[in-house]
């Protein structure tokens, strides 16, 4: 091939090529996953009670992630004096679960199938939503895995509690996922961080969550306690499933979401908790939801989402060594 530099390989800048997550290899055959991390898109947003648009979240976060596609050498962090996500960490992108418009059961089943395939391959599932209802099939997919490897403790980073049992017959919308999760016998507990202002859940839901062992902290409570004290409240040595709703962050830095709630976290509030979690136990699964890119013409929201996921993966695999 002729052209500048091709004899030593391509420069492969972020704005070239196909926008897989982190510009990592695309794997179309879900029976041949051979990786440490597998990224799955879940572009489902029929669970929304207000503004839709998170169906375009996976596409936007993938494109934003190309900004951080550092090639084979990984990314050096001078604060930590560590290189993260070198070529020893194998990440693949599986594309998206198939979504059947208006059909919640079928769409959720397709997401669950993808997560099961990732877990059966021994990889860490990273699911990009979609609205927060996509957490329901993600948690459901962990049944067999938890039977083999032990229960999961759910760490939720969110503005809203999402602990509604049923409203007008709706049990699998984006206000229900944490209620559906706590019903699973393999979910050992729950830590819910960032919950504030007018939530999707009534007072009885908060009482129900606490009665079932959930620890609920607002943004102000998290800041008052500090990172270490917050981490001390989370069971040490557990397997964590981390679900991140982008509306946990202040809409001043993450406006691209369906239900923005002012007074949210800033970047390092959350990053330091995630870094501590990676040190404290084993992260078994991750989802990041509610990025609705049409509401943020600056594209900052999806850049925040991609940066958060890649840094979190860096912490996890640096700890695994």
- At the fourth CATH level, what is the homologous superfamily? Ureohydrolase domain
How many strand units? 10
- Write the H/E string, N to C: EHEEEHEHHEHEHEHHEHEH
Mean pLDDT: 95
Count of domain modules? 1
Strand-residue proportion: 15-25%
Task: Give the overall silhouette.
Answer: globular
The major β-sheet equals: 8 strands, parallel
Helix tally equals: 10
Instruction: State the CATH class.
Output: Alpha Beta
In the sheet with the most strands, the strands line up as 4-1-5-10-9-6-7-8
* CATH architectural type: 3-Layer(aba) Sandwich
**Secondary-structure content class:** alpha/beta
What Rg is obtained from the alpha carbons, in whole angstroms?
19 Å
Structure commentary:
The chain has ten helices and ten strands. It has 321 residues and is of the alpha/beta class. The protein has one domain: Ureohydrolase domain (Arginase, Chain A). The protein has an eight-stranded parallel β-sheet, with helices on both faces. The chain has a two-stranded antiparallel ribbon with strand order 2-3. The chain is globular. The protein starts with 36 loop residues before the first strand and ends with a helix. The model has no long low-confidence stretch (mean pLDDT 95).
């Amino acid at each position: 091939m002729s052209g500048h530099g091709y004899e030593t390989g391509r420069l492969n800048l972020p704005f070239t090529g196909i926008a897989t997550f982190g510009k990592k290899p695309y794997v179309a055959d879900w029976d041949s996953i051979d990786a440490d991390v597998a990224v799955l898109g879940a572009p489902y947003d029929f669970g929304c009670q207000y503004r839709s648009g998170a169906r375009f979240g996976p596409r936007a976060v993938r494109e934003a992630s190309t900004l951080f596609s550092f090639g084979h050498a990984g990314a050096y962090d001078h604060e930590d004096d560590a290189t993260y996500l070198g070529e020893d960490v194998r990440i693949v992108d599986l594309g998206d679960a198939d979504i059947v418009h208006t059909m919640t059961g079928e769409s959720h089943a397709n997401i669950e199938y993808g997560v099961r395939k990732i877990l059966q391959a021994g990889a860490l599932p990273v699911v990009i939503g979609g609205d927060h209802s996509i957490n329901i099939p993600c948690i459901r997919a962990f049944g067999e895995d938890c039977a083999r490897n032990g229960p999961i403790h759910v760490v939720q980073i969110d503005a809203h509690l999402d602990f509604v049992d049923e409203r007008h017959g709706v049990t699998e919308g984006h206000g229900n996922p944490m209620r559906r999760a706590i019903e699973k016998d393999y979910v050992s507990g729950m830590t819910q961080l960032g919950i504030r202002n007018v939530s999707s859940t009534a007072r009885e839901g908060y009482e129900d969550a606490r009665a079932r062992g959930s620890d609920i902290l607002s943004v102000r409570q998290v800041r008052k306690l500090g990172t270490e004290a917050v981490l001390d409240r989370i069971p040490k040595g557990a397997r964590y499933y981390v679900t991140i709703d982008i509306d946990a962050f202040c809409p001043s830095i993450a406006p691209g979401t369906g239900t923005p709630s002012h007074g949210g976290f800033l970047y390092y509030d959350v990053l330091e908790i995630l870094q501590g979690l990676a040190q404290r136990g084993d992260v078994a699964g991750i989802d990041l939801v509610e990025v609705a890119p049409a509401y943020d013409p600056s594209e900052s929201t999806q850049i925040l989402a991609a940066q958060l996921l890649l840094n979190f993966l860096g912490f996890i695999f640096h700890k695994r060594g």
